[in-house]
Amino acid sequence: MKIPDEKWYEAIKVRRSRRQFNGRLIDQQKERQLLNFIDELNSLVEGFRAVFVTENPEKVFRGAVGSYGKIKNAPAYVAFIGDMSDPNVQEKTGYLGECVILEATSIGLATCWVGGFFDQNEVKAQINLIPGERVLAVSPLGHTDEKYNLEEKLMSGLAGSHKRKSLSRIAKRVSVEKWPYWISNALEAARLAPSAVNRQPWRFIVSEDSIVITVDSRYFSFGISKRLDCGIAMLHFHIGALKAGVHGTWEYLTAPDVARFVVS
User: Fold this and answer.
1) Any alpha helices (H) in the chain, and if so which ranges?
2) Cβ of 204: how many Cβ atoms within 10 Å?
3) Would you kindly state where each structural domain of the chain is located, as residue ranges?
């Protein structure tokens, strides 16, 4: 898949997790554009698929959604489904699911990664799962008012959802002063990746000839794979590298490492 780095790089900068929607339906042009993108993405990969759903989103998101408050009035959602026999299903779902998130953002739709606290049974009732598949995450889709309402302000503030760890905390080995520009740009994009309860579990090991992403050593997972979060950061890193003129690919590794970025 060719990554539209210019468009998605801008989407990274403006994307915010939104949970309070205004109930306005997604217009047909935007819905068709996103559906076409999802169909193309699904046709290119194995072990993952995304499904766009407009049937009863309220039932999927009923109740509280962790410490971030409730999701309300979303007219649609997208489900991210992984084949659990794939050893890299979590990081693959994070990477490819974020492709959908950034594409939706680029056409003016609001989103929010939800890896827990949604009704799994309701999603299963609305989507035909293949044996071995599991819904690993979902995202509401729709329109929001431009400004956060009071509940969103309170909950995002309590969760620290916009705070990001410094580059010196998420990247080790070679000092910041010795990084080429493309690595700095790629890591800055990775810093902005969303993660469960904003835990930012990714760590980048920077060497002169490779970049490895691994998970931190903290125990708490909140029932959501840290490798899924790392998959999201991997896409952001890839986009940041492309924006700086560097092409490369990710090679999957075994735990606790996640993947290695190889410059082509």
Assistant:
1) 5-14, 28-44, 57-60, 89-106, 120-126, 150-159, 167-170, 181-191, 226-243
2) 22
3) 5-154, 167-263
Is 84 strand, coil or helix?
Answer: coil
**Distance from C-alpha of 106 to C-alpha of 13, rounded to nearest angstrom:** 11
Element (H, E) at 83: strand 76-83
Q: Which fold has domain 5-154?
A: NADH Oxidase (3.40.109)
Look up the pTM and report it.
0.91
Asked if residue 189 lies in contact with residue 12, where contact means CB atoms within 8 angstroms, the answer is: yes
Asked whether the beta carbons of 163 and 198 are under 8 A apart, the reply is yes
Pairing of strands 171-173, 202-206: parallel
Please write the tens of the pLDDT for every residue from 216-251: 876 666 678 999 999 999 999 999 999 999 999 999
d(CA 59, CA 151): 21
Distance of alpha carbon 84 from alpha carbon 106, whole angstroms: 30
Q: Which CATH code of 3.40.50.720, 3.40.109.30, 3.20.20.140, 3.40.50.300 fits the domain covering 167-263?
A: 3.40.109.30
For residue range 30-88, list pLDDT tens digits in order.
999 999 999 999 999 999 999 999 988 888 987 655 445 688 899 999 999 999 999 99
Q: Which residues face 128 on adjacent strands?
A: none
Residue 174, both tokens:
């070679």
Q: Which residue has the tokens 């990664």?
A: 113
